[in-house]
Design a protein that fits this description.
The strands form four sheets. An eight-stranded mixed sheet has the order 1-9-10-11-14-8-7-2. A three-stranded antiparallel sheet has the order 3-5-4. By secondary structure, the protein is α+β, with helices and mostly antiparallel strands. Helix 3 packs antiparallel against helix 4 (68-103). The chain folds into two domains: 4-103, Orthogonal Bundle (Helix Hairpins); 120-430, Bira Bifunctional Protein, Domain 2 (BirA Bifunctional Protein, domain 2, 2-Layer Sandwich), CATH 3.30.930.10. The protein has helices at 4-9, 11-19, 25-64, 68-103, 150-157, 162-169, 178-195, 210-216, 241-246, 303-320, 367-372, 396-406; strands spanning 124-129, 200-202, 207-209, 228-229, 234-236, 252-253, 260-269, 288-298, 325-329, 341-349, 354-363, 375-377, 383-385, 387-395, 414-415, 429-430. Strand 10 and strand 11 (354-363) form a beta hairpin. It is 40% helix and 19% strand. The protein starts with a helix and ends with a strand. It binds one RNA strand through residues 39, 42-43, 45-47, 49-50, 52-53, 55-61, 63-64, 71-72, 74-79, 81-82, 252, 375, 381, 383.
RNA sequence: GGAGGGAUGACAGAGCGGACGAAUGUACCGGUCUUGAAAACCGGCGUGGGCUUGCCCACCGUGGGUUCAAAUCCCACUCCCUCCGCCA
């Protein structure tokens, strides 16, 4: 949620920043008007409320003094003011509700670094990485045997079975078998082993309450992209960011404990409602995938460092796996609702010959903290909102695709990167099941 | 799933229609005393909102209701504890 106080203080700054994201100034004007109206009504209602309280106090006094006549008079007076107060409060609440529902749909202010753009095609590539790059090696070329899409490799080796997944849960729910299943587990373990020292490992619930989904900004705006279990009022999490952001919801944190770093491996669920039929072959886009998420609550002045740490750790996993990747600075048109600045990591997968998004590292400023009400105690005793930062390290389904395509050998087997060997008992080769 | 008990400030815990934003204790922060510390004593010590910055308003699990007046009474819900059942 954006800062109403900032909108009052510097409306032009807020409006021009949000205009870059397509929020019309008339919407913002409406918010400003509602805010003024709300405060006016609030003052009115509170003044009446104060009168009722005062009158009630005097009723009590009169009763104790056995002055029944005065007590009756004051009761009657208070009843009348009370009716006015009720009406005034209702009017105030109605405006507050309208204001809040509008505010919940307003995205975060983009950082000045965010490039302008309409959609993902306008994202800006910052740099690439590939094996041997720092030693002067040219961008890799790929052999014919690496130009096979992962769904063919998966079927050939018996490690991926999309048909069975569809039989059980419908299309876009993958099912992994044997070494394919183990590979997924190995990837999560590799990342957790690299990060769980500095980032406390959490295994959160996979489902979350509406209130929890509100805190990250996923609701109400993205309700169609989420699976819900209506009978129990629960939502399937689209990312571990959701439970991790709410872990300290409503708390006032001791600044000495900041940055507070957390990581979690969870299943993630996405309906992909607007993406029907688009890039949906194999593992390119699925409804359920495993992901390791890195997360930090921090002081505002720590946010740059916290962001860079998450980014560097996500890169470290890609580098350990020897995969080619690029960094994209997301433009205004592709930025997530709650984010002020995001860098995506896309892995190059030679079999499908595409760059696949495997991580999104975001700085939310105090947008999520305001919704989740997570604060810290400043040295002068006052409280202020923390900043939140998070990023995937990484989304494994697409990494799985990139690994099997990149490391496919001429004989059709896969030779896993050295970093995964410990998770396969030292064995690095995946062959067809006989 | 069944029966009972509970939810109050950082923590413990009182209050069970009116002067209660809330006793008391612990913790914490200042001060006195002390060579220093401890103890003792004195003072302070929740969060948010509004505006005329001194006042007002809200918050005692959540949401409704009764009342001139609700932490306190009523209803619903959520969570926690104990016992029984079931289960991994």
């Amino acid at each position: 949620m954006i800062d109403l106080a900032q909108l009052r203080r510097e409306p032009d700054v807020v409006k021009s920043a949000l205009a870059r994201r397509g929020v019309s100034s008339s919407t913002m004007d409406e918010i400003e008007l509602l805010d003024v109206e709300h405060r006016r009504l609030l003052q009115e209602a509170e003044a009446l409320r104060a009168q009722v309280k005062e009158l009630s106090r005097r009723v009590g006094d009169a009763r104790r003094a056995k002055d029944t006549v005065t007590a009756e008079e004051l009761t009657e007076k208070s009843r009348v003011v009370g009716d006015e107060e009720r009406a005034a409060s209702e009017a105030t609440d109605a405006v507050a509700l309208k204001l809040r529902s509008l505010l919940l749909m307003i995205p975060n202010l983009p950082d000045s670094r965010v490039p302008d753009g309409a959609d993902e095609n306008d994202n800006v590539e910052l740099r690439r990485w590939w094996v041997g790059m720092h030693e002067g090696a040219p961008f890799p070329t790929y052999e014919e045997h690496q130009r096979v899409p992962h769904w063919e490799i998966g079927t050939e080796l018996g490690i991926l079975d999309m048909e069975s997944g569809a039989k059980i849960a419908g299309s876009m729910f993958p099912l992994f078998r044997g070494a394919g299943s183990k590979l997924l587990r190995a990837l999560s373990s590799l990342s957790l082993d690299k990060n769980a020292g500095e980032y406390e490992e959490i295994r959160p619930p996979t489902f979350a309450l509406t209130e929890t989904m509100m805190s990250t900004g996923h609701l109400p705006k993205s309700a169609d992209d989420m699976y819900s279990i209506e009978r129990d009022g629960l939502w399937a999490i689209p990312t571990a960011e959701v439970p991790l952001t709410s872990l300290r919801r409503g708390d006032i944190l001791d600044p000495a404990t900041l940055p507070l770093r957390l990581c979690a491996a969870t299943a993630c669920f996405r309906r992909e409602a607007g993406a029907a039929g688009k890039d949906t072959r194999g593992l390119l886009r699925v409804h359920e995938f495993d992901k390791v998420e890195l997360f930090a609550y921090c002081l505002p002045e720590q946010s740059d460092e916290a962001f860079n740490d998450v980014l560097q750790r996500a890169e470290a996993v890609l580098q350990a796996l020897g995969l080619t990747y690029q960094l994209l600075e997301l433009c205004t048109g592709d930025l997530g609702t709650a984010s002020a600045y995001t860098i995506d990591l896309n892995v190059y997968s030679p079999g499908v010959d595409r760059w696949l998004e495997v991580s999104s590292v975001s700085w939310f400023r105090d947008f999520q903290a305001r919704r989740a009400n997570v604060r810290y105690r400043a040295p002068d005793g006052s409280t202020a909102l923390v900043h939140t930062v998070n990023g995937s390290a990484l989304g494994w389904v697409r990494i799985w695709a990139a690994v099997v395509e990149t490391y496919r050998q001429a004989d059709g087997s896969i030779t896993l990167p050295q970093a995964l060997a410990p998770y396969f008992g030292g064995e690095r080769t995946i062959r067809a099941r006989s």
